[in-house]
């Protein structure tokens, strides 16, 4: 049930982000509507991410344009976890805005997902 609660919370956030409120001249709410087309796209993405454990097929979409990354001398590169056709295990690959690479060659990626956050020890309650 915990997973369902997380999905519903994310859907609620998506609905809030797509809410359009029209105000009267005195600042009171005239009407409140939800941009259904935008909300529907967000909701589908949320459900799809949870069903596929966060994996996104490349034939569905590719990552956004990468930003300058100081870890790569300011080059526009982002790191992702990828599944490559014909391999058994996912691995980390670089996305340069055009293709995925392992650093030596292009990768035939079939699905990708953001890297997980690194492990952190528990912080004290102090």
Summary tags:
alpha+beta, five-stranded antiparallel β-sheet, 126 residues, two-stranded antiparallel sheet
Mean pLDDT: 86
Secondary structure tally: strands:
7
State the helical fraction: 25-40%
Number of individual domains: 2
Report the total helices: 2
Extract low-pLDDT stretches. none
The end-to-end span amounts to 32 Å
Characterize the main sheet. 5 strands, antiparallel
Strand order of the largest sheet: 3-7-4-5-6
Structure write-up:
It contains two helices and seven strands, in the order αββαβββββ. The longest helix is centred in the N-terminal third of the chain and has 16 residues, at about 1-15. Helix 1 runs antiparallel to helix 2 (about 35-50). The protein has helices spanning about 1-15, 35-50; strands spanning about 20-25, 30-35, 55, 80-85, 90-95, 100, 110-115. The chain folds into two domains: about 1-50, no CATH class; about 55-115, no CATH class. The radius of gyration is 20 Å and the shape is elongated. The strands form two sheets. It has a five-stranded antiparallel β-sheet, with no helix packed on it.
Summarize the structure.
The chain is α+β, with helices and mostly antiparallel strands and 126 residues long. It is 25% helix and 26% strand.
């Amino acid at each position: 049930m915990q997973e369902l609660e997380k999905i519903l919370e994310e859907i609620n956030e998506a609905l809030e982000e797509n809410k359009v409120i029209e105000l009267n001249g005195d600042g009171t709410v005239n009407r409140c509507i939800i941009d259904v087309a935008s909300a529907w796209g967000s909701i589908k993405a949320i459900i799809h991410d949870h069903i596929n454990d966060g994996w996104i097929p490349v034939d569905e979409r590719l990552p956004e344009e990468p930003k300058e990354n100081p870890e790569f001398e300011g080059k526009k590169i982002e790191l992702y976890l990828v599944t490559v056709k014909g391999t058994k295990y996912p691995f980390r690959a670089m996305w340069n805005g055009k293709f995925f690479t392992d650093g030596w060659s292009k990768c035939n990626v079939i699905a990708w997902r953001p890297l997980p956050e690194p492990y952190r020890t528990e912080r004290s309650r102090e």
